[in-house]
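Worked Example 4.2. Consider the chain below.
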Amino acid sequence: MRTHTWVRWVSVVGAASLLVTACSADKDKGSSDDTKKVSIASLMGAPDYENVDYDAQQQQVEEAVAKCMVAEGWEYIPVKYPDSGGMVEYTDEDAVAQIEREGLGIAYYLLNDGSNTDNPDDPWATFVDPNQDYIATLSEAEMMAYYGSLSGTEEEQAAASTTEIDPETGEEYTMMTGNLGCQGEAYTEVNGDDITQTPEFWDAMQGYYEELQLRVEADPRIIKMTDAWSTCMADAGYDYENQEAYYEHVYTDLQDRANAVMGDSYGKDPMEGWTQEQMDDFWATASEDEVNALFNQSPELTADQRTQLEAIFAEEVKIGLAEHSCSKELGETGFEVYTDIEEQYALEHEDELKALAVSLGSKE
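Applying the procedure from the previous section yields the following structure tokens:
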């Protein structure tokens, strides 16, 4: 039996129960500490992300970044990013409106040149980095040094990067570990070291989450909800065994169709085929406008490409609305079932998890 996508998300990406709890904290405002579910992450000593003011926390990070950058000899104004919305509830109406406006995010951004201008409520539409003007005054060499101070030099980033291969698709992707540059230093200063975000932690935890995943998949409640979801989708005209099959179709088949419309050259490294000497010469002599022109190329859509992308977009909206409607119980009740199963599993392995946490340094 293949992994259900929503289960896969809560069990593999980040500190599973912590991320979900952070997203659903508003729903559980009335709960007290004694009613919190035990999770693998909580037994491992992961930070408690519940009821955190992330906007205030981010501003603290920016203030610390500014101090670090000034100490490095640069000018830096703390960036005030658009508010994340804190604990504002994202309603069902909001979700439907977003799907109707953006589909599933595949063709929409190609049709709109990578922007979100059709959404008047998008706070990022008018966002401007206050450091933009200062950065524009720097030479190319100074600019590279600036970003090296801000987020780590190329050498530091290369040393902190590892290449992983998706066992299902064979696709390579790069993961970066460690907090680099002033941004990394500031993040650590404000948030502290988090062992749960290191590859060592997840290498040690992978087996536990895989076992938990299998237990969740086999739970009769999850099977019943998944079958109901599949029936609902079939009634809407879509034949999927589970949500993973749906996501594979959406983000593989539809994405492949969109990529085919755009052509082989779309999304490729603009320096592909260049020699090291050519790249070194470009970075040594290119102006900021030339750099932007090379790396921010937005292809002009032909009438035929636009027509094909609009057809994909329409399909995204239709299937997205159907899945949204069918997944309500699986999303709401499924989360409660998942936390119940995880608590039971975590308590069964409590002693070994706590011992592992001590060995990894996440608990004393």
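Residues 1-34 have pLDDT under 50 and may be disordered. The chain has 18 helices and two strands. Compare this with Example 4.1 before moving on.
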